[in-house]
Amino acid sequence: MKEKITSNISRPWNDLPMDLLELLVRHVTLVDSIRLCASCKVWNLTSNSIPMAKTCPWLMYQEKLDGTYKLLDSLNRKEYTTKIGLPWSVFPTKMLCSKDGWVIVLGGNRAVFMVNPIIQHIVKLPTLQVTDEDFHGITFTSIPTLLDCVVMGICTNRSDKYSIEFHVWHSGEEELTIIYDDEIPFSIANTNPVYLHGKLYYLGEAGELGVFDPVEQNWEMLDKPEPVYTEDNLPFMGTEDCYLLELGGDLVSVFRYNYFNYEICVFKLDKLKMEWIQLSRRPYRLDIFS
Q1: Average pLDDT over residues 36-59
Q2: What is the CA radius of gyration of the chain?
Q3: Is the CB of residue 200 less than 8 Å from the CB of residue 206?
């Protein structure tokens, strides 16, 4: 009996039963779960079968111009400091979009990188040769370490707002492919496109919707949904912010009218009827003096 007790006490941690390990990972933060899987070779080999910790979106911001970034886990009230390792010549940087733990970062001289601040991984993308005035948004289909990763940016021609350029990058390529279209029937909103069900969706300033197929590399303006705004109630140019989001597999559009009353309207796309459904009976209102 004494030998059996001694044997149990000295049992190595890498021999921990998988069911107990899975219970443990469910109760740690994302960073701690990554550290846990990196603790030993056995846990690293079995990490694919371990469910990742449940996390909410984090806030990432650049605190100093020395390559230091802050990661704020608001759910667990924890803050982490990381240095991604970008070249000094690209600072300061601007974060354009994020998904699945990866962030597209724009630096000096229009240098573009995809970075993972947790695992310290950097992927250099071709330079984005557009100005801030012409740039509308960017997104990616999957993490850049996968062969099917596609990065898609959208820009407009300054002389013709209905002429747009799709800047496309496929994993492993050294240059961007630029696809032109000069017959866009609506004005593109300044918001990132959304990748959903194999297609990239773009929002118009009045609520129109366009879709781009990254495989076939063709663009289509959808007949539905109908615009949120008509010609009679279209906001003044420059007085509204528009956003397109994905929420639980649905497309959600947000319109913030910031001329007088800072009105916010949120709509969800009804996929069967292909129409925008307002998520509240009355628009949200923010008091400018509150």
Answers
A1: 62
A2: 23
A3: no
Who contacts 91 (Cβ-Cβ below 8 Å, separation ≥6)?
A: 65, 66, 67, 107, 108
Strand partners, 77: none
Bridge-based pairing of strands 199-203 and 209-213 is antiparallel
Residue 91: the pLDDT is 81
Do the beta carbons of residue 103 and residue 115 sit within 8 Å? yes
Asked if residues 192 and 139 have their Cβ atoms less than 8 Å apart, the reply is: yes
Q: At what angle do helices 30-37 and 18-25 cross, to 10 degrees?
A: 150
Amino acid at 199: K
> Could you tell me which residue, 172 or 157, shows the higher pLDDT?
172
Residue 287 scores a pLDDT above 50: no
Reading the block at residue 87, the tokens are 């070249």
Name the residue with higher pLDDT: 86 or 214: 86
CA 215 to chain centre: 20
b/e code 157-175 from CB counts within 10 Å (16+ = b): eeeeeeebbbbbbebeeee
Cα-Cα-Cα-Cα dihedral sign, residues 122, 123, 129, 133: negative
**Two tokens, residue 174:** 């050294």
Average pLDDT over residues 218-232: 80
Residue 51's SS3 state is coil
| Overall average pLDDT of the 67-95 stretch | 82
How many residues make up the chain in this entry? 290
Q: What are phi and psi of 7, to 5 degrees?
A: -65, -40
Find, among 142, 107, 136, 101, the residue nearest to 124 by Cα.
107
